[in-house]
Design brief:
Elements (H helix, E strand, L loop, with lengths): L14 H30 L6 H8 L3 H7 L3 H9 L2 H10 L7 H13 L6 H8 L2 H26 L3 H24 L6 H24 L12
Helix pairs in contact: 1-2, 1-4, 4-8, 5-6, 5-8, 6-10, 8-9, 9-10
Amino acid sequence: MSDDEPTYVTLEEHPSGLVTWRQRKKQATREAIADAAWRLALKVGPDNVRVDDIAAAAGVSPRTFNNYFSSREEAICAQRLRWAEKLTSALRNRPADEPLDQALGAAILEVRGRNDADKAMIRLVAATPAMRAEYLRHSVATEFTLAEIIAERTGCDSLAARVVGGAYATAARVAGEYWLRDDGDVPFTDFLRAALERAAPAARALEASLSAPHHPFREGHQC
């Protein structure tokens, strides 16, 4: 074999490395499709975007598009709402002894705080009923993501984790809605901080209840 010939690695030789490479390739393809979908939606409006156009802009086939997304709305929303997927690592990187409300607020501001897209164009996308439904679906997914981390950090039961996670997911969504309605120059982060402050009492109350003698929200507690 010459030095110019490629060396092929089998799954049996390096299984973890090969799987990781495949996962990275799939993620890169998904991101390319999502990027293309968002750009097209901003350019021509979401109602005028076709799956074939998204696939062509991303350099993939329509069949490949359907392997990653079930609809154009899902693809259009995916890139702007990927912040929900980043929350897990952001929250797990927060100090373990940090108060829950501070950890949640800091992580959401870190991941969600930047919003440099054109407000008028986002309004156009958000005005589409199908897109609003997709935003709501992602908000619920964010609630579950937050609830999982809250339960890990505190040891609380799933009910309490869902309630607090829902409060913070709703706060982030509502902040976006108010920012889009505002005709002034108030930064999105100002709306986000204000909304997170409204959700903070739920996190504080949860931690306080877990410190109480009968901690009703501790995992495994029988009410």
